[in-house]
UniProtKB/TrEMBL annotation, chain A:
<dbReference type="GO" id="GO:0005886">
    <property type="term" value="C:plasma membrane"/>
</dbReference>
<protein>
    <submittedName>
        <fullName>Sugar ABC transporter permease</fullName>
    </submittedName>
</protein>
<dbReference type="GO" id="GO:0022857">
    <property type="term" value="F:transmembrane transporter activity"/>
</dbReference>
<feature type="transmembrane region" description="Helical">
    <location>
        <begin position="20"/>
        <end position="42"/>
    </location>
</feature>
<feature type="transmembrane region" description="Helical">
    <location>
        <begin position="301"/>
        <end position="320"/>
    </location>
</feature>
<feature type="transmembrane region" description="Helical">
    <location>
        <begin position="252"/>
        <end position="269"/>
    </location>
</feature>
<keyword id="KW-0812">Transmembrane</keyword>
<keyword id="KW-1133">Transmembrane helix</keyword>
<feature type="transmembrane region" description="Helical">
    <location>
        <begin position="160"/>
        <end position="190"/>
    </location>
</feature>
From TrEMBL, chain B:
<feature type="signal peptide">
    <location>
        <begin position="1"/>
        <end position="26"/>
    </location>
</feature>
<feature type="domain" description="Periplasmic binding protein">
    <location>
        <begin position="30"/>
        <end position="285"/>
    </location>
</feature>
<comment type="similarity">
    <text>Belongs to the bacterial solute-binding protein 2 family.</text>
</comment>
<protein>
    <submittedName>
        <fullName>LacI family transcriptional regulator</fullName>
    </submittedName>
</protein>
<keyword id="KW-0732">Signal</keyword>
<dbReference type="Pfam" id="PF13407">
    <property type="entry name" value="Peripla_BP_4"/>
</dbReference>
<dbReference type="InterPro" id="IPR025997">
    <property type="entry name" value="SBP_2_dom"/>
</dbReference>
<dbReference type="GO" id="GO:0030246">
    <property type="term" value="F:carbohydrate binding"/>
</dbReference>
<dbReference type="InterPro" id="IPR050555">
    <property type="entry name" value="Bact_Solute-Bind_Prot2"/>
</dbReference>
């Protein structure tokens, strides 16, 4: 056991990824053994269709967590971005065919960016805790959205949205492709750029980052702007999946995104955690949910399984973390 | 690594065994997605689904999402499509959100049934146990019978913009206008019926203002309870009838004291049974047309792809205790 631990330590962050892949393989094997008809194309396709909207929101949660913060407004920020895009498309581009898609995407991304930017500015320059700021933003957005839509929905997007929400390319669901691109982009930002490095440093020890010449304020604004853009993308994807948008769609995802980040080894106090383990952890959660659905288990039990899974992984991880100190 | 895998396996397996479905695959598989799992209404529906599934030899089950977020219903339906069920039933939280995924289900050759969602497009059929008109008229008839078509009455709804409540109220008022010309509505509709206090206060005011008040029609879960309390306080039981739909557990005492005359709802248990009976019939190639006698539903009316039965469930001294025990 000791040598195993030491091997994992040497692997460093790659070890986390290997471990998460191991967990994913284990859960696939488990459900392959106990859930009837699990090894089938449609099952994996169904999982690949379901994962991305939650996955994008989890990415949007991940970046602030690495910086030592949290973004509680991810779901409502996605709703508002989707609403603005849907409103514009509905008003001007219903018959514009495929043109409506890039326009909607641009509106969604920029409104998500604007919301994130606002959170970032307040966190960085007012110095309020991100939980308070993003909670305030979440309530503000929900209130504004409910007021503007009167609790109703905007629906009836051009057909091109359905090809994004339900189409496949070479058998791979389009939402999954969108998600994988977002994962790659986030992984690149976090792992290969000096901005990404700054985010890890700020999350680890803000004071040390400040003294080593990192512009902490600018980094925080960047963190929440990136997070906001990812929620904008999630909002557009939800719009494409549901052909409709309403304030409150997907609000059950909020806590799950935080769960996924911690499951993937993101440190609740910031500074540590990698993007790829997160993507793999999300897949494990989806395998558990779909596997239990396939067996006809209660959804409440599936939620319980998620919770048990998180606690289990935390317990397994604890000795490794202690070794790192 | 090995020990880790085994740990994951053991614990997950322990969690799973509790939820294992029966292994035997029946001929027809029917999955019904509820609005939310674990509340009395849908527990009753689940009981109906399982009961009827056993009776008809169908593998029928309910999927109850953990919150009323329509995104969770989409996920549940995706999994049902992957599971290749024959029939998907759903009580939508938001009909529009489900359209694309229901389209996908139909493209996969799955029969789609909805309930309480006449506006859904991508479905084979929607079924309603009682139409808005029939439900409103059932209440009007009960009021007319109790007051013998005399005096004045007032109408409460949950809100002036709640579509279902106002549709029921419209039907009730229209029936009374035609069949009880002597009964007059004493004031415009009040949007108070989701609050016990507002309903009580409004009723006290109305009793003070109108000597000839003989009845209250309340559509909204708290309306009959509030109105009945006012009637009880003023000692007017038997003189002012309170008719409307309410939750059995909350209203049972008032029903037994006579302060609430009664009302009608529809039964989630029956709805669950209908999902299975109708789903099996359609999966075996059955068809539906206007005026047909269908299993469980009786003689139905078909409007477009919406099936309307007329089987309101009476809330009365005889039924209220049983319903309260089911938690409805």
């Amino acid at each position: 056991m000791r040598t195993l631990l030491q091997q994992f330590r040497r692997l460093g962050s790659a070890g986390e990824l290997v471990a998460m892949v191991g967990v994913l393989v284990a859960s696939i094997l488990l459900f392959g053994a106990i859930a009837p008809g699990f090894y089938a194309g449609p099952v994996f396709s169904s999982m690949a269709f379901q994962l991305p909207e939650l996955g994008l929101l989890a990415l949007a949660m991940f970046v602030p967590i690495i910086s030592g913060g949290l973004n509680l407004s991810v779901t409502y920020s996605a709703n508002i971005s989707g609403l603005l895009a849907a409103f514009f498309v509905k008003a001007f581009l219903v018959h514009a065919g495929w043109v409506s898609l890039p326009v909607a995407l641009a509106i969604g991304l920029s409104s998500g960016l604007a919301i994130g930017f606002a959170i970032g500015i307040i966190v960085a320059y007012v110095g309020a805790h991100p939980i308070l700021v993003s909670l305030g933003m979440m309530i503000l957005l929900r209130g504004l959205g409910e007021w503007a839509t009167r609790g109703g929905d905007i629906s009836g997007m051009p057909d091109v949205f359905a090809t994004i929400g339900y189409g496949t390319v070479l058998g791979v669901p389009v939402p999954m492709i969108v998600f994988l691109i977002a994962v790659a982009a986030t992984a690149y930002l976090m792992g290969r750029t000096k901005e990404g490095f700054a985010i890890y440093m700020v999350g680890s020890t803000p004071a040390a980052a400040e003294y080593s010449g990192i512009d902490v304020k600018k980094t925080l604004v960047l963190v929440y702007s990136v997070s906001g853009m990812l929620t904008g993308l999630a909002g557009i994807l939800m719009l494409a999946r549901f052909n409709s948008v309403r304030v409150g769609h997907g609000d059950s995802y909020l806590l799950i995104t935080i769960l996924a980040c911690f499951l993937a080894g993101a440190n609740p106090f910031g500074g540590f955690g990698k993007v790829l383990p997160l993507a793999v952890a999300l897949m494990s959660l989806q395998v558990i949910a779909s596997g239990m659905n396939l067996m006809g288990a209660s959804q409440h039990l599936a939620t319980a399984a998620w919770g048990a899974f998180l606690i289990l992984i935390m317990a397994i991880r604890a000795p490794f973390l202690r070794q790192n100190k | 690594m090995i020990s880790r895998k085994m740990l994951v396996g053991t614990i997950a397996a322990a969690v799973m065994t509790a939820g294992m479905a029966s292994g035997a695959m029946a001929e027809t598989t029917i999955g019904v997605v509820a609005k939310i799992g674990g509340i009395p209404w849908f527990n009753a529906m689940e009981a109906g689904i399982e009961q009827e599934g056993k009776a008809r030899g169908v593998d029928a089950f309910m999927v109850g999402p953990t919150s009323a977020d329509p995104a969770l219903q989409v996920r549940a339906i995706e999994d049902l499509i992957a599971r290749k069920v024959d029939v998907i039933g759903v009580v939508p939280n938001d009909a529009k959100v489900l359209e694309p995924v229901l389209q996908k289900a139909r493209d996969a050759g799955i029969i789609v049934l909805t309930h309480e969602s006449t506006a859904s497009v991508n479905k084979n059929y929607d079924f309603e146990l009682v139409s808005a008109k029939d439900l409103g008229e059932a209440h009007a008839k009960l009021l007319a019978k109790t007051t013998e078509c005399k005096g004045g009455y007032a109408v409460y709804v949950g809100g002036l913009t709640v579509p279902a409540h106002n549709a029921w109220a419209d039907a009730a008022v229209a029936w009374l206008d035609e069949n009880c010309p002597d009964m007059k509505q004493v004031a415009d509709r009040f949007g108070v019926a989701e609050s016990v206090d507002d309903s009580r206060n409004t009723t006290l005011d109305l009793i003070r203002a109108h000597d000839d008040l003989t009845g209250i029609l309340a559509f909204g879960s708290q309306g009959p309870v509030g109105a009945a309390r006012a009637v009880e306080e003023r000692g007017l039981i038997g003189k002012v009838a309170v008719v409307g739909l309410f939750s059995a557990g909350q209203g049972r005492k008032l029903v037994h004291s006579g302060a609430i005359t009664g009302g009608y709802v529809w039964s989630p248990l029956e709805a669950g049974r209908v999902f299975v009976a109708l789903g099996k019939m359609l999966a075996e190639g059955g068809t539906v047309s206007d005026g047909d006698e269908l299993p469980l539903l009786g003689k139905i009316r078909l409007e477009g792809s919406n099936i309307f039965a007329n089987m309101p469930l009476a809330l009365s001294k005889d039924t209220v205790d049983g319903l309260a025990e089911m938690g409805l």
